[in-house]
Amino acid sequence: MEPYRSRRPRRYLRSRITRKLILDTALDVFLNEGYAKTTIAKISEQAKVGYGTVYSHFKGKDDILCKVIDNVLVDFYNLLDVPFAPNTLEDARGIYKELILTSFRLADQHRPIMKIYQEALALSDNIESHWFGVQALFIESSAKSFKYAKNKGLAKDFNLERGAKAYILLIDRFIWEVVNERENDMIATADIIVDMLFHGFFIDPNS
């Protein structure tokens, strides 16, 4: 039994190294070839590992891209951990602006692989489902923030889930505008979205 236990960590380590090698190589292949032209054969060839070895770690090309994107999305997921406990509307506004602006800046920073991901979204149901899962995490987090603001007396009474979905889908749309270089003033856009969130554009005749 002792020899088995002593070999197991080395096998595990080799497996982790191979997995990382495949992901790192896949990132290069995706960036150079695009989603549609990337194949498992190209990834295995450039990684210098067997075709079957790739499939022993991943289900296929879509699974690999999702894992590659998850590594990038760690920066976005960190936004879910930003504490939201404002005591005033001014505090809440500042937090929302920083979250929105950080999302845009991360999209700009990761533009090359996000463009590949966008290509895949149009071609693969698996990738689309992956992105819906990402959206769901942020919608859930936003609903909790809205609930906190509502309980604090900082927000009106409204459907929290629908409001959170509308908010996240708006951010989502502008993230892709940034990725496609159609959004040049991220600060101004963040300000507009915060204004919409906190004040709206129309005059309340009863105010």
Helix content: over 70%
How many structural units, i.e. domains? 2
Uncertain residue ranges: none
The helix/strand series, from N terminus to C terminus, equals HHHHHHHHH
Q: What is the name of the CATH superfamily of the largest domain?
A: Tetracycline Repressor, domain 2
Your description of this structure?
This protein has helices at 2-33, 40-47, 51-57, 61-77, 89-109, 111-121, 125-151, 160-179, 186-198. The protein is mainly alpha-helical and 207 residues long. It folds into two domains: 2-58, Homeodomain-like (Arc Repressor Mutant, subunit A, Orthogonal Bundle), CATH 1.10.10; 65-198, Tetracycline Repressor, domain 2. The longest helix has 32 residues, at 2-33.
In short:
The protein folds into 2 domains: 2-58, Arc Repressor Mutant, subunit A (Orthogonal Bundle); 65-198, Tetracycline Repressor, domain 2 (Orthogonal Bundle). Helices cover 75% and strands 0% of the residues.
Which terms summarize this structure?
9 helices; 207 residues; Tetracycline Repressor, domain 2; mainly alpha
Helix and strand topology:
Blueprint: H1 2-33, H2 40-47, H3 51-57, H4 61-77, H5 89-109, H6 111-121, H7 125-151, H8 160-179, H9 186-198
Helix pairs in contact: 1-2, 1-4, 4-6, 5-8, 5-9, 7-8
